[in-house]
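Figure caption, in words: inputs first, then the predicted bound structure.
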Amino acid sequence: KQTALTGSALRLPPLPSPRDLIKLYKLRARKQLSQNFLLDTRITDKFAKSAGKIEGADVCEVGPGPGSITRSILKRHPGRLIVIEKDPRFLPFLQMLEEASQSRMNVVVGDVLSLDMSKMFRESLRLSWEDTCPDIHLIGNLPFSVSTPLIIRWLRDISLKQNAWSYGRVRMTLTFQKEVAERTVAEANGRQRCRLSVMCQNWCDVKHLYNIPGSAFVPPPEVDVGVVTFRPKIEPTIKGDFHLIEKVVRQMTCFRQKYCITCAGTLFPEHLRKQLSHKMLDIAEVNPETRAFQLTMDEFQRLVMAYEHLCSDQPKLFKYKFSSNVDEDVWMEDEDATTFTSTSN
Ligand code: SAM
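Bound structure (S-adenosylmethionine present):
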């Protein structure tokens, strides 16, 4: 069976389909890499379309696997396509597309979690942060175990305008387990509101576009998959150092249903807990009986400022790390605390 990718700007020669290639190479999805493939062209075309207009743009696809989404992206005529795949078994599949793509596509075998994208795209595409979004797109259907740590890492990079975001407000289109996709867009008071909601919405305008049923994947996962787009904001809603915000949001949402005064207590060592958690909520003018999932972005901003104020009085406080598993207090290693302590000292 042959498939042909055609288009006015780019015409790929007829190629064996990813499904046939998987059979030909006797490839089995690797459980430890959570490999579930999308092989239905209608679904991969819709996914590539979700990224918006990519014609002429630089696109980076993360986790292309056998390359079905890659083909759908190529059909939309990007100026350049870079794919980053961790599993070298897919190299022949991807090299076949690379050769057919008239030098528009490059394959990188590597781990997206440690990849530096700060020089990956065309220099001519760099824009200032306040400008419109540059013609650069990050697209990926990654394993669930990778997509959540990846988006947190990328939010940090967005906050620092580094990595791909040294080119400006680069947009992303990613998949998550459906329930996680719902969390990324959950508002205060919503059933799914959690740390991820606050973090994603602080630095990005987030849209949960649609779901793909688990049955559309080979092999099918037991869950459905949500497609989410992220567009970095010019100004985050909660301002401040990423690690400081991350710590306050993490601790203030650590017990979803409890009063936020209990959550605030986890920011402070046992002997200061009661006094400082009340002081922090007092300064922030937050009702101690608000539940974690009810906290608004404005309240988070005030909580971050209040915690920063307390840490600037006692810089060692920022190193305190609550652990529910041990009775003793745990203090972060210096490197975990560097960003904040260096700015606060
Ligand atoms: N995008 C393909 C599709 O939709 O058919 C494959 C999806 S599969 C869920 C995820 C792919 O991401 C696999 O090919 C896997 O090897 C790759 N992958 C997993 N972790 C990765 C990482 N850290 N960096 C780059 N690729 C990764």
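DSSP finds twelve helices and 13 strands in the chain.
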